[in-house]
Amino acid sequence: MNEVLQRIADAQAVIFDMDGTLIDSTEADYLAWKRVFAEHQVDLTFEQYFPLLGRRSHDVVKEGLGLEGAALDTALSDKMRYFNEVIDTHGFKMIEGAKELVEKVSRQGVKLGLATSSRRPKMTLVMERAGLLGYFDVTVTGDEVINGKPAPEIFLTASQRLGIAPENCIAFEDAANGVRAAKQAGMHCVAITTTHTAAQLYEADLVIDSYQQLYGQPTT
To answer: Sign of dihedral through CA atoms 195, 146, 74, 92?
Structure first.
C-alpha cells in the first residue's frame, strides 16, 4: 500500500468516479430507475440494474426502454426528479474514508478530476451536498461525452481538461465498466469493492476493500 501512496504523491492528477467511489447512492439510484422503468411497464429487478452501474443514463434509457428524442429526455428528467425525492427523504452516505482521501490528495497539491457517468444535475446536487465539489479542478459527466464507460472517452476528457497526460493520472473506480474505461485510457487504476467484488474488478492495478487500507488502518 505504501507504493500506492507514493504513486498518488508522484501523480500529477487523481481522477475519481463518483457513485460507489465517493458516495453511496446505489439504493437511491436503483429506486429512481425502478420507478422510471415501471412507468414504461418494465419491472427492473436489482439483478437487472446491477450491470447498469457505471453506464450513462442516456444509454440506460435508450437501450433499456428503447426511447429516443423527447421521450428519452422526459425519462431522464423523471429519473432525476425521483432520485431527488429519494435522497430528500432518506439522504445518502459517503463512502467511508473517501472525503479524507480527497482532502489529503488536495493538500498534496495534486490536481483532482471527477469522471462520472451521472448527468451534471445529479453530480452537482450530490457533490454539493457532500461538500466535495469545491475540491475538484475539473468535472466531466456522462451527458458531456458521446461514448460512456467502458469506453475511455470520459477519462481522456478529464485528463485533457486537466492538462495532464493519462499516464500521469491515477483513477479511482468501483465498477468493472469504470475500471475498463480507466485502463483503456492508459491510467493506473485503483478499485474499491463497494459495489463489485475483487474478482469483478480484476482489471484494476490494485483492488482495496476500504480507503483505510491505503493508510494501514484497520477496517470497521
So the answer is: positive
Q: Is 209 exposed, middle or buried (0-12, 13-18, 19+ CB in 10 A)?
A: exposed
What is the topology classification, in CATH, of domain 26-90? DNA polymerase; domain 1 (1.10.150)
CA–CA dist 176, 193 (Å, integer): 10
* pTM of the predicted structure, to 2 decimals: 0.84
- Mark whether 209 is an active-site residue: no
Q: Which of 17, 19, 29, 174 is catalytic?
A: 17
CATH of domain 2-24+93-215: 3.40.50.1000
Give Cβ neighbours of residue 98 (< 8 Å, ≥ 6 apart). 21, 22, 23, 211
Closest CA to 172 of 97, 107, 115, 93: 115
pLDDT tens digits, residue range 98-120?
Answer: 999 999 999 989 999 999 998 89
Q: Where are the domains of the chain?
A: 2-24+93-215, 26-90
Instruction: Answer whether 121's CB lies under 8 Å from 23's CB.
Output: no
- Cell 479511482 belongs to residue: 172
Grid cell listed for 116 = 462520472
